[in-house]
């Protein structure tokens, strides 16, 4: 089933203040919209990306995303007065382009969306879903107030969630719901899930991410680490990991399952490539190492898929207002052969880190039958991460 992404970026950002719409402001030297788009561009399952922009924002848009050379990104569509209007106009543009399948609707104002969350949205809508949205349990007690500001009700918190984007929908169903609401003159829906509920569709939830903040008020930009002057400094981190072979029939390397006559001994899935890359990013951030954040003593990481570790470290770079420039990896083993899987590994790493494939390099070498890798006792990986971070945080 084809998957499209619809990024709404036509708002004026009145609550955020500042000069011009917030989606064009810089975080870590890059526009918010560019941050929001990158993990969608890194997701190979997405075949079409449409962006809805405000009237008169064409030059800002070109300045923000003009560097992106990806045929999946279509020409921007003019938005409407409200978010609901902008989504509807974006859906109509996708319909005009003959799209059918699933659509992920995302706010440009959520620049810290992770590749993992986009993957979860695609998985949640799956082959048969109608609507699925990311949700987080609320931690504050929520009250409903009356017009005078008096508390009218305290709903039980265990059934309350706050919801985010990307929200995933069956395209035809969402388009029909938007058209029906438009014909009925209803324009008060603050998210697309509410519109689907109104149209009578079930809406499923999947776990959202606390870091997937919506930039709404000026203080959100401060929390997001937007540097005042936008000065970024280059930082380089290195990572190294080894795992011993054991009985088994496959290994995980760079997020790809490779059939092999041995497995690896590990608490997680034992992916040395992703572990070395995670440590390289954490090194560049000076935020400890993989064991600091995902202790092997913690049962929740038993058998964990290591792309989660890399996505976490990449997210930390973005949360600190930074960007990943390049990831370079060397895998050391006599077998399995890495060459046939190189491109799949590059893709998987780019998706997990939320960067482009051309920002990832994979090299492999044997150790000429010397040492533990040469004796086929295990495999190793070395990684270098080049990132940029705001000068003063
Ligand atoms: N007419 C509109 C209004 C909003 N949006 C988009 O919807 C998302 C969520 O909206 P919000 O955070 O409310 O953004 P703004 O409308 O820009 O903010 P404000 O309400 O403070 O003006 C943003 O990515 C925004 O660009 C849009 O495409 N068209
Ligand atoms: C769609 C949304 O991001 C879900 O939390 C939110 O409802 C958008 O609200 P806004 O007032 O348009 O920012």
From TrEMBL:
UniProt binding sites for 4-CDP-2-C-methyl-D-erythritol 2-phosphate: 241-243, 267-268, 289-291, 365-368, 372, 375
Pfam family, one: YgbB
SUPFAM superfamilies linked: IpsF-like, Nucleotide-diphospho-sugar transferases
InterPro entries registered for this protein in UniProt: IspD, IspD/F, IspD/TarI, ISPD_synthase_CS, MECDP_synthase, MECDP_synthase_CS, MECDP_synthase_sf, Nucleotide-diphossugar_trans
Cofactor: a divalent metal cation
Region (2-C-methyl-D-erythritol 4-phosphate cytidylyltransferase): 1-234
Pathway: Isoprenoid biosynthesis; isopentenyl diphosphate biosynthesis via DXP pathway; isopentenyl diphosphate from 1-deoxy-D-xylulose 5-phosphate: step 4/6; Isoprenoid biosynthesis; isopentenyl diphosphate biosynthesis via DXP pathway; isopentenyl diphosphate from 1-deoxy-D-xylulose 5-phosphate: step 2/6
Domain of life: Bacteria
Amino acids binding a divalent metal cation: 241, 243, 275
Keyword Signal: no
Keywords from the UniProt entry: Isoprene biosynthesis, Lyase, Metal-binding, Multifunctional enzyme, Nucleotidyltransferase, Transferase
EC number: 2.7.7.60, 4.6.1.12
UniProt-annotated site: Transition state stabilizer, residues: 15, 22, 267, 366
Domain (2-C-methyl-D-erythritol 2,4-cyclodiphosphate synthase) ranges: 234-387
Gene3D superfamilies in alphabetical order: 2-C-methyl-D-erythritol 2,4-cyclodiphosphate synthase (3.30.1330.50), Spore Coat Polysaccharide Biosynthesis Protein SpsA, Chain A (3.90.550.10)
The family this protein is said to belong to: Belongs to the IspD/TarI cytidylyltransferase family. IspD subfamily.
Function: Bifunctional enzyme that catalyzes the formation of 4-diphosphocytidyl-2-C-methyl-D-erythritol from CTP and 2-C-methyl-D-erythritol 4-phosphate (MEP) (IspD), and catalyzes the conversion of 4-diphosphocytidyl-2-C-methyl-D-erythritol 2-phosphate (CDP-ME2P) to 2-C-methyl-D-erythritol 2,4-cyclodiphosphate (ME-CPP) with a corresponding release of cytidine 5-monophosphate (CMP) (IspF).
Protein name in UniProt: Bifunctional enzyme IspD/IspF
Taxonomic source organism: Bosea vaviloviae
Lineage, top ranks: Bacteria, Pseudomonadati, Pseudomonadota, Alphaproteobacteria, Hyphomicrobiales
